[in-house]
Amino acid sequence: MTIAEQIRQIAENARKASHRMARLSSGAKNDLLLAMATTLELGTPGLIAENAKDLEAGAAKGLSAAMLDRLMLDDQRIKGMADALREVAALPDPVGEVTKMWKRPNDLMVGKMRIPLGVIGIVYEARPNVTADAAALCLKAGNAVILRGGSEAIHSNRAIAALLQGEMTKAGIPAEALAVIPFTEREGVLEMLKQEDLIDLIIPRGGESLIRFVVEHSKIPVIKHYKGVCHLLVDASADFAMAEKIIINAKTQRPGVCNSLETLLIHKDAAPQFVPQIAAALSNLKVELRGDEIFREHAPQAKVATEQDWHEEFLDLILACRVVGSLDEAIDHINTYGSLHTEAIVTSDYANAQRFIREVNSSCVLVNASTRFADGNQLGLGAEIGISTTKLHSFGPMGLEDLTTTKFIVYGDGQVRC
Amino acid sequence: MTIAEQIRQIAENARKASHRMARLSSGAKNDLLLAMATTLELGTPGLIAENAKDLEAGAAKGLSAAMLDRLMLDDQRIKGMADALREVAALPDPVGEVTKMWKRPNDLMVGKMRIPLGVIGIVYEARPNVTADAAALCLKAGNAVILRGGSEAIHSNRAIAALLQGEMTKAGIPAEALAVIPFTEREGVLEMLKQEDLIDLIIPRGGESLIRFVVEHSKIPVIKHYKGVCHLLVDASADFAMAEKIIINAKTQRPGVCNSLETLLIHKDAAPQFVPQIAAALSNLKVELRGDEIFREHAPQAKVATEQDWHEEFLDLILACRVVGSLDEAIDHINTYGSLHTEAIVTSDYANAQRFIREVNSSCVLVNASTRFADGNQLGLGAEIGISTTKLHSFGPMGLEDLTTTKFIVYGDGQVRC
Prior knowledge:
Two copies of one chain form a homodimer.
Chain A: H1 3-23, H2 26-42, H3 44-61, H4 65-71, H5 75-90, E1 98-103, E2 109-116, E3 119-124, H6 129-140, E4 144-148, H7 154-170, E5 178-180, H8 186-192, E6 201-205, H9 208-217, E7 230-234, H10 240-252, E8 261-267, H11 271-284, E9 288-291, H12 293-298, E10 303-304, H13 307-311, E11 318-324, H14 327-337, E12 342-346, H15 350-359, E13 364-369, H16 376-379, E14 386-388, E15 396-398, E16 404-415
Parallel strand pairs in A: 3-4, 3-6, 4-5, 7-8, 7-12, 8-11, 9-10, 9-11, 12-13
Antiparallel strand pairs in A: 1-2, 2-16, 14-15
Helix pairs in contact in A: 1-8, 2-5, 2-7, 3-7, 5-6, 10-11
């Protein structure tokens, strides 16, 4: 069979298996996830042996030390994968939830019930733990899943999937509901992205170039997020000690991630007192400041911010800083340069807090809290399957519910339409 | 300017105007819609004059009488458009609704708030009333809208839009939030479908070929529905009088629409008594029956159903009929041949009703009611912007809420992440 034929068959089998997945009880799904966790732990020696093949091939190919570290599995990381499966088992099952129900004038009872999406394709890069994490979330939400990991991790991914599939077979659940694309040619991804009649959703997990490649070639809806240019506005009425604490957390706690702070906006009335304070604190922490003219009047150590700096996701200890004349000017800045990811305000003013919450339409909007909370776990979704900065279907961090849709259910007693 | 440049500018202006739309109060939006309704009624003579140009051009081009009728505006139809605007004004505003809110262990209050999608593109065919209907729904949900109607209706569409835009200007609302593509070349649609950074959603309204054209060429998410192959299962325990009444309604009340019945499934234990009864009733109403072997044993007047008949959306007084051995066999048939649109069961058995509701994952699933209720108005959504048989974002009839998304809102008092 050609690659195209094999991919077609995998997708057809996954579609068929998805009907079985959709009918599984919560108990059966949870038992499966717990059994999968145990089998991963028991299979540690085998997983480490397969992982060694990937590490060897990666070293021979000259992968960077950072890449090799992301690829590496050891006892602790395998234990981590198993624990993540147990956490997914502990989450409430979204399938079957009736999110609302109402009565029509003709006595029809109409409701909306959560159901699985069907078949979900995940395209990801080096880290092999995604194989277990993503599979667990998709299966728990009653879906079938087709995984296409990076070629560097192919032995590890296959070994993990084989253990998980073994537990499915033991439980009488079709293992085709957890498919791994078995070859590493790029043609495999391209063929997968064509199966619009069999795959309901594609989630790419990885860097911007992977995501752009998937969006470019997919006939299937893609949930994506390119970058996070997150803003924080220090209002005139802000508690400056609170603002300093939140800005330092948002910028420095983990600068390389998408919900870290990239642009600081400061109300002009706060600037004379607060700019020197925050500039000193951030400079002490080795954060490079790039400010507009007014910011630099109060913080001469700052470099000159260029137009490009307002667009930039630095992912590093660099912060663009601008003084704004009003809340409206701040919102205009965010609308012009933002990425719809996450924005925060620090304020003591009730009306400004409410306006910021209402009028800033990024996927996560915070008052008096760090942008670093824009994360599925931190917001209370349980595990996170990804984050979306496009507005269709999901917007922001995505949990189990985002792997479902709703159907209309109607209970009648003989009604016909006039 | 080239067509491409003009479309780009329209989309840029709409995007800018969408920020203003998103901040409008419900009162301002409702006042606008009511003013638009009045201006359409007052503008009737002008609309009819512009419509006459389309009718004349259509007749010269040899459009069918049915097409010309769909194109035609008269006093009553203009009154109908105005009343539809008033109905949209009367609907609750989805924007700003907090759909849920919860407290985290660190006392952060986290919620989800409905916000507009942003800019919505509507691509539609002959009927000029879509110009007013679709604009009203998009604007009410706080969006900007770009309309691209059929070339046959260009004068009518422009005249309707001009009246509506006039009311926006009077109210101080940017008229760019209601844009009409001003030329009829196909290039206009193609350019519109490329503006993925400016337009959030495309909704095609029209026949399958229009929808396929849009899906084929769009870089923007498309909400679509190709066809409705709706099924009804008569369970062994069904009240046969109720079943007959519902089947006749579902098949014959309006056979040319997507929620009419196309395939009838009958439990084998019901077949000896019910097949002769329903076959006689439907034959009396001039419905052509195409049955499987067992069905035809009890209804010799039925033609032989072919494999293709199970896939068919007849949109006519034709019904495919099959006798099934069990509820599972019925569900398998629906999974194999269905279009995920609408399915119904007629039963007196509690467990079978609940299983059908849970296990059939089409966009609308009914017990003891006609498939004809799968409609936004009938289900209680108010007006309907369209219907989706793909599961992303919306599934089934779509109302105002489906023209919004949700963002996360977070109220803190200084929390940072550890």
